[in-house]
């Protein structure tokens, strides 16, 4: 699938840009890059595709038709505007805080530490 491959490459290249241009590293951390490329493959290319295409497609069946309308017609289509607002709300207020950010920061924590650590005392 093109989207999965594109998400994998895009995420890998983004991490390379950060490592080389923002952090000014002399050597690339390939373990970190592989982890973020894997995140791009499975989460961005898989989970988000499943959310935005088949799931949102079923929840908002008129979205594609609304997107194809000229701006003048969109301005008159209150139901279409409501559907767009609902999609943005679900994405930004439900999906991102409860799914995307936890998955991203869990990946980041695993990559930047020696793995997951447990807190609390034990025997």
Strands, helices and their partners?
Layout: H1 2-22, H2 30-59, H3 63-68, H4 71-74, H5 78-112
Helix pairs in contact: 1-2, 2-5
Shape: elongated
H and E order: HHHHH
> Helical element count?
5
Residue-averaged pLDDT: 91
Decide which structural class fits the backbone.
mainly alpha
Rg from alpha-carbon coordinates: 19 Å
Work out the number of β strands: 0
Taking the sheet with the most strands, its summary is:
none
Distance between the termini: 49 Å
Beta-sheet strand percentage? under 5%
Low-pLDDT sequence parts = none
Helix content: over 70%
Overview of the molecule:
With 123 residues, the chain is mainly α. The protein contains 5 helices and no strands. The protein has helices at 2-22, 30-59, 63-68, 71-74, 78-112. α1 packs across α2 and α2 packs antiparallel against α5. The N and C termini lie far apart (49 Å).
């Amino acid at each position: 699938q093109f989207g999965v491959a594109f998400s994998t490459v895009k995420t890998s290249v983004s991490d390379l840009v950060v490592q080389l241009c923002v952090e000014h590293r002399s050597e690339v951390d390939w373990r970190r890059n592989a982890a973020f490329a894997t995140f791009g493959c499975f989460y961005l290319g898989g989970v988000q595709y499943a959310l935005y295409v088949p799931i949102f497609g079923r929840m908002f069946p008129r979205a594609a038709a609304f997107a194809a309308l000229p701006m003048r017609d969109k301005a008159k289509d209150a139901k279409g505007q409501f559907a767009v607002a609902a999609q943005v709300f679900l994405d930004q207020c439900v999906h991102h805080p409860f799914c995307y950010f936890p998955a991203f920061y869990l990946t980041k924590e695993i990559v930047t530490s020696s793995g997951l650590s447990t807190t609390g005392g034990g025997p």
